[in-house]
Amino acid sequence: MSAKKTTKKRSALHAVTVLALLGASAYLTVELRQEEQDKAPAVQKVTDDPQLENSAPDTGARTWERLKNPDRTVLRGSKGQVLATFTDGARTATLKGPSRTFAEPANTTSRVVTEDWVRLMPEPWRQGAEKEQWFKDWFKQYYGSEEDDVFALAFQYVQGAPIKKDDEGIPYAGDAVFGPFKPDGVDRLEQNDFYDYLGIPYTFRDGTTMQPRQERYRALDCSGYMRMIFGYRARYPLRASNTVGDGLPRTADGMARSTVGTDIIKIQGPAPWYTRPNNIDVLQPGDLLFFKMDHRTGNHMDHVALYLGVDTDGHRVFISSRKEVNGPTMGDKGGASRIDGNGFYAQLFRSAKRL
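Structure tokens predicted for NlpC/P60 domain-containing protein (355 residues):
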């Protein structure tokens, strides 16, 4: 065999080998990518009905529909998807909008990816309100708006949140603590309201003025945190205490038992511990959650949280201000922030309210 023929055969063999290796490499790359995709957790979107998704803007015909348990009105798009939910007696509304991710890597691996934007209407909802001018004006302004909503406000107080100041130089947002230590150096003081965090006197609608306490500056207990978000920031009316004035009461128990908003899950069973709800499917993002946690407080609800919806692991999660983390968190220290399963908070969950 001549040298030329031998060279040609070797070249041909080399080319075939290279092509085979390239083909195998491409095949393995595709397989590895597919394997990685299969392992990746699926993102669950929070909707009024888990079977309905709001995957794209809807420009077709919209319809209004009345639903029960609780009594509410939903706005549906041309494909039947829920675009907004309005509950009788509540000012809280959920509007579909751009997808957002809420996370707190310092304290949990939980992530909430949601299209729900939680906002306060100027008046409580009632059947037929979609025809009233106040609502038409409000809806036109806020549907599709990316202005800070209740969720965005809530995460402006978690660990590492940047400080924000008003025109007078007063910090109104930024990393908050739960409260200072008690004299024992172990437990933390409660009853830290939004005006303590702000460090300024606050006059309520009934004329009562409350003074901040210097040692509680930048502190928000669980109910103070909700009052900061819904009241001081979103402008829901606030009481000076559980009994003085009108609006959202001062404590978790006061909120749970008040007539403001609409009870979505009522307190049930014998006092003082009551019973855990059997059905939590009626909840929607933005609801207030109440927990019975301490035998020393009699029949009082001891903790309040903001329901965020379903995280990417499929769990129903919340954010609240807690002693273990010393401030607002959706984290796992002291118990995962979940109301499903049999974890610490899940077992102590008792009722829910939609403001």
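Residues 1-56 have pLDDT under 50 and may be disordered.
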